[in-house]
# Entry
Amino acid sequence: MSVSDQPVNMIAEIEAPSLSLSDLTWRRFKRHKMAIAGLVVLFLLIIYSFGGAFFVTEKYANFTDTKERLQAPNAKHPFGTDTIGRDLLARTIYGGQISIIIGITAAFVEVMIGIVIGAVAGYFGGKIDAVLMRFTEAMLNLPQLLLLIVMAKFFSSDIKNIELFGREFSGSVVVIIFIIGLTSWPYLARIVRAEFLSIKEREFILAARATGTPTWEIIFKHILPNSIAPIVVSATLGVAGAISLEAYVSFLGLGVRAPTATWGNMLENAYRYIESAYWMWFFPGMFIVLIVLSINFLGDGLRDALDPRSRTV
Amino acid sequence: MTNARKFLEVKDLKTQFNTPEGTVYAVNGVSFDLKEGETLAVVGESGCGKSVTMMSIMRLIQIPPGKIVGGEVVFRDTDLLQLSEEAMEQIRGREIAMIFQDPMTSLNPVLTVGKQITETLRTHTPMTQEQCRARAGALLELVGIPDPIKRLDDYPHQFSGGMRQRVMIAMSLACTPSLLIADEPTTALDVTIQAQIIELVKELKKNVGMAMIWITHDLGIVAGLADRVIVMYAGYVVEEAIVDDLYENTLHPYTLALLQALPRADRRRDQSLKSIKGSPPNLLVEPRGCPFAPRCEFVREKCIAENPALVNVETNHKVACWVDVKTGALR
Amino acid sequence: MTEPLVRVENLTKHFPIRKGMLIERVVGAVQAVDSISFTIERGETLGMVGESGCGKTTAGRTLLGLYPATSGRTIIDGHSVHEARGSELMQVRRKAQMIFQDPYASLNPRWTVNSIVSEPLRVHKLLPNQKARNERVKELLELVGLNARHINRFPHEFSGGQRQRIGIARALASEPLFIVCDEPISALDVSIQAQVVNLLEKLQDQLGLTYLFVAHDLSMVRHICDRVAVMYLGIMVELAERDELYENPLHPYTKALLSAVPVPDPRKERERKRVILTGDVPSPINPPSGCRFHPRCPIAVERCKVDVPEWRELKPGHHVACHLAEN
# Structure
């Protein structure tokens, strides 16, 4: 009878299937069918907007031909033309680019402001927290749309066009990005603050303090990576929010100026032709609905996948 | 005690959970019985299946992901696993009551304590509102809550942890059940409060005469409380004995190792603790061989190949092990 | 006589209770720890026991300076912890470490074992480069009984006992002299508790460590500590050599506590006479006057309600705070 220690090693091997955090996250995300669908649709929309640019030029998208105005979809203009004869297919391609860029960069501005304000308030607490949070609440209590319209009006006087990557944009794009970013952060700041408040009480933070880890390292290396889940989720939803806000403002004629197209400002004049020229609102409207929905589904999936409480696969 | 008839008999109970990681083999053929008025302790570490066994008996396993895949739970000649949900509701609370580790989560925070006790009474008895309230007050008094009638109108958060556990016990006794299942009721409590609760339960048992199953990981509590003990590991019963035999004539290597790993408050230290090597078992792997084999100091080749059955080796003393721990020889 | 490694003098920690939004005012205080004093010799293990809310965890954290002290001081290896700033504070942080109760909460879930264990090495710039640090982390992992190959894994891939070993490896990384063990085993299963306790003892022998072992498990405290201090509601009620305390407890609270500990021996359990305390631990916001234990004390007299008992040394090395305790 041999008393071997072999079974012990056997168990040690079985017990630890090495799964990194990203593997776990991806596994949980995959279970979310609608999120996968959202991801696919979003991917297709990005390909459409940025890949489409290889087939049509921006010049063509902005080319006016009043002889061909208000044409229904046909072989030459698959999505039809608008009131001054611009090809809507080409405009949805270039408009998509601007809409997506506005969405991402405005969300980026929102996230940066939200993280800084939320992190400082949550980590340091006390008076700093009280002052920052009262300001945040004040911002939350003002209707965002009203704020947007007022700011858009205020900043809209003489905007120069800007050149970027060899293309000319209306400067109003940058203005819109900043005013959306500057009015959207309070919600995120509150989430970040709440995360910081709870994570800073966890024992591993105490362990870091007991080691003498400097404060900035505790904030940026310990707490921030652990609050990344709600930040990523609200950043994702922030992209969708910024795209629809841009549509709102542009629809009211206060957003991105022509000739630069966005899905939002393409709707600007369409409402006068709701019955007579459905294609004018249908195509840009469809793209807005698709992108906002797909990002929202993606956000839902990410929320579940990144939730640190659902530790199981 | 020993002559009383069996009124609960669990036979070959198996419960599994389907999780995305695979099947969790939580309870793998557990059998035991209980006589009227007896106190049975179920001992084991986290994940040994002790709570799942009791939840399966009460049919409180969430299905899915859980599933009772086999076995019988015969309570007074009825197989509880075959009963309809309605019939089972008549058993729960009235015949078999249960108390849990965390009294805060088992009490409804927005209802007064009195309301919660009378609710149980109204469901199971034909008493009037006034009778129920009087009985509820009497129950609180029975479990040693000062000022019982006044406290009926208090909410759970107005009670301390120990007092809440008393309220839970009062609720479980409302319909004078013949069996009380207590799932680690003192684990969340401090040691002096734990002593209060254990004294209370012993007293109540003597007066009310119900049988009790007490789930715990603490071999110290078991020693002072139980008539008989079953030790569980990885969803199996590995040893079953009268309480004195379990401590003085330990037959399973796991029980032995647990006892040797315990420090003693009542003795001077003589040596280092004996630790059990390795980690708790992985319940995701379908069991093959003795589940304790990888951590067992008596392990033989036979243990890895074949899982020993729980058999009577001495009078009223069952063990599931191929090895005789006293001689080190195979049985 | 050499100076003890740790000297705690009248250490007090009150948490103020504030009200108001922008303009806050203090409306009261949780008296978590009230004027405790003791010393710990080099190489010694001092146990600190008590029930939840007695202030033992707060005491451990305050004496390391993780919470600012309301009054009193701690001196660790010549450094006054609460007055230390800058490089002296870093000396304190390097020499005194902590092991935590919850092996799930005490490790950053997004860091690898390597980052976790090497954090003290990086913060204190103890080794010149990444390669040297990796080697040291591997050494530490092996020292605490973990597989050095698992260096790049994340905490969630380990069991509770293994995580506690990671926490121990982190605490050892800066080569401390003194470690506060805050309930290091109470979240673990019995079979794993013995593993961790034996590891702590082995490390103490090998590295000459000094421990403050904070726990509520009186059996384990008797097993691993040289001396034991008993806390009740923020104050220290008794302090003595291990066997002296367990065999001749002088304070009525210690007596009740010890009699409440279940012993794994059915015959003994049947014969034992228990001192069952009535009632619950009162709130530390308005602790009882006089002796804080008097409302639950089975032998309290009038005097106990009024006079705060003195901290007396009744026998050499056996201190107690009780009017009625006699040798």
Chain C is about 35% helix and 25% strand. The longest helix of chain C spans residues 190-207.
